[in-house]
Amino acid sequence: MNSTPLKMVVIVAEPVLETRLVTELRGLGAKGFSIVEGRGEGTRHAHATDLPGSNVRIETIVREDVADRIMEHVSQHYFANYSFIAYVTDVAVARGEKYI
Question: Which residues contact 4 (CB under 8 A, 6 or more apart)?
Answer without folding.
Answer: 92, 93, 94, 95, 96, 97, 99, 100
